[in-house]
Amino acid sequence: MSLSVKHLLGIRDLERQDIELVFQTADQFKEVLQRPIKKVPTLRDTTIVNLFFENSTRTRISFELAEKRLSADVVNFSASGSSVSKGETLIDTVNNILSMKVDMVVMRHSASGAPHFLSQHINVPIVNAGDGINEHPTQALLDAFSIREKLGSVEGKKVAICGDIMHSRVALSNIYCLKKLGAEVTVVGPPTLIPKHMESALGVNVTYNIREALAWCDVANVLRIQLERQNTPLFSSLREYSLAYGVNRRLLDSLQKDIVIMHPGPINRGVELSSDVADSRQSIILNQVENGVAVRMAVLYLLAGKN
Amino acid sequence: MKTILNGTQLAITIDRLCHQLIENHLNFEDAVLIGLQPRGIYLSDRIYRTLQKLLPGTPISYGKLDITFYRDDFNKGHALHVPNETDINFSIENKRVVLIDDVLYTGRTTRSALDAMLDFGRPASVELLVLIDRRFTRQLPIQADYTGRTIDAIISEKVRVLWNERDGKDEVIILE
Q1: Closest CA relative to residue A298, chosen from A62, A57, A66
Q2: How confident is the model at residue A40 (pLDDT cuts 50, 70, 90)?
Q3: From the CA of A33, how many Å to the nearest CA of chain B?
């Protein structure tokens, strides 16, 4: 068994079997991470470069830990302080790094499609760690893995993705992933933050009413407002957004059922999610982070083994 | 196709292996059993159940170990292996470990198992129990301490161990 793809550029390219293979493999890596020695020798002859052209805390640490737990050699690159500021092109930067005998690339870039472009020019497996507003496949995999862990399966579950759908690569990857696994998806947010034609293009339900979405769902994945990607204001103020779309204790208590709360981080506490909800029993936010390492180990293992 | 052990013979052999284990480990105070995934666990399950019958009321530590991440053929042109469950919920520190697998062939699985096992602690000693020992095929200096049956089979022949739980009957056969 192996993945049907050479690179992990997006969930869009994956088959359902691929996703299930990642989960099956991640289950075993999760067990490895509970051992006294949380490390296996599998990728000891593999060198991986983490190319981060855009800021990241969780994803970069998570990938780096996953690589180190697999015994890979790791090289870290961040655009600030590199020759990118001297005008070097993406292909030149990457080819220079690859000429130093690197076997795999993990890349985050602010331009949508950057890893896809790169995949046409280089020969080693690429893992997309987030490209612009397009996809963030490992986040979607760890989100679905966390739902499966919490609720037993993803099939037939109702998931609401809340907030800034327009600028969120997490939303798009999550929609692809959840739909492929047989979940029902509703996106909810202000009309200005939800792209047109979502229903027909992606097969999701759209609503602009947060209470309605939460009352419907088993799981709410609450997203951050991506102010850094908004050129013109799309809502009047963060305070107003929080009043209309913020998920808080009062709202959850009015539902008369317990839903699971997720967030890909970083949280803007008090904006999309109140602190008492983020830190509550219903929240699996820290489980998501924990699962991220095992899921990324699985992705790296499966892609490295395809050579 | 040639039958090496039929159902009755297999049961007798497993009984004998269990008695040999008891001979060496008495009440299993310091000993732990570890079956190797994926195929060794059918044998280790049988051995564990038989030992429980022979020593009623004696607690025996029994775990399962997957060696996928420790293989020496990763990325060497072979098909990728999907990992199986590892379940060792006890410490092996200073214990006498008995590794259990169905067929001892090249010795590479056992080598990987030794590596994998050491990540759970430093045992006092390690023994190897196999149902079938294929002679003259070893690629590493590894031998079994408890053997069900030793056979001579040429490289092109395949040894298959069939288990009632999975294959509907107990039998050991050679396929040409």
Answers
A1: A66
A2: very high
A3: 11
Measured CA to CA in angstroms, residue B38 lies from A17, A251, A269, B67, B130 at distances of 21, 49, 46, 9, 14
Q: How confident is the model at residue A109 (pLDDT cuts 50, 70, 90)?
A: very high
Dist. CA B74–CA B117, nearest whole Å: 18
User: Looking at the partner chain, which of B68, B83, B120 has a beta carbon nearest the beta carbon of A36?
Assistant: B120
Quick one: tokens of B118?
């050491």
> Looking at beta carbons, which residues of chain A come within 8 Å of B79?
1-2
Q: Which of B71, B82, B87 sits opposite A21 (nearest CB)?
A: B82
**Cross-strand pairs, B104:** B133
| pTM as predicted | 0.93
The CB density around residue A50, as the number of other CB atoms within 10 Å, is 23
- What is the least distance, in Å, from the CA of B108 to any CA of chain A? 15
Q: Does residue A230 contact residue A167 with C-beta atoms inside 8 Å?
A: yes
For residue A6, the chain B residues in CB contact (below 8 A) are none
Question: Residue B151's domain is classified under what CATH number?
Answer: 3.40.50.2020
Domain span(s) for CATH 3.40.50.1370 in chain A: 11-132+289-304, 137-284
- pLDDT tens digits, B87-138: 999 999 999 999 999 999 999 999 999 999 999 999 999 999 999 999 989 9
Class of domain A137-284: alpha beta
Greatest pairwise CA separation for chain B in angstroms = 48
Tell which phi-psi region holds residue B125, choosing left (phi > 0), alpha (psi between -120 and 50) or beta.
beta
CA neighbor of A124 nearest in space, from A12, A44, A8: A8
Q: What is the CATH number of domain A11-132+289-304?
A: 3.40.50.1370
Judging contacts by C-beta atoms under 8 Å, the chain B residues touching residue A36 are 119-121
Query: Is B90 within 8 Å of chain A by CB?
Result: no
Nearest chain B Cα to A31, which residue? B86
Go through A143-180 and write b for each residue having 16 or more CB atoms within 10 A of its CB, e for each that does not.
bbbbbbbbbeebeebbbbbbbbbbbbbbbbbbbbbbbb
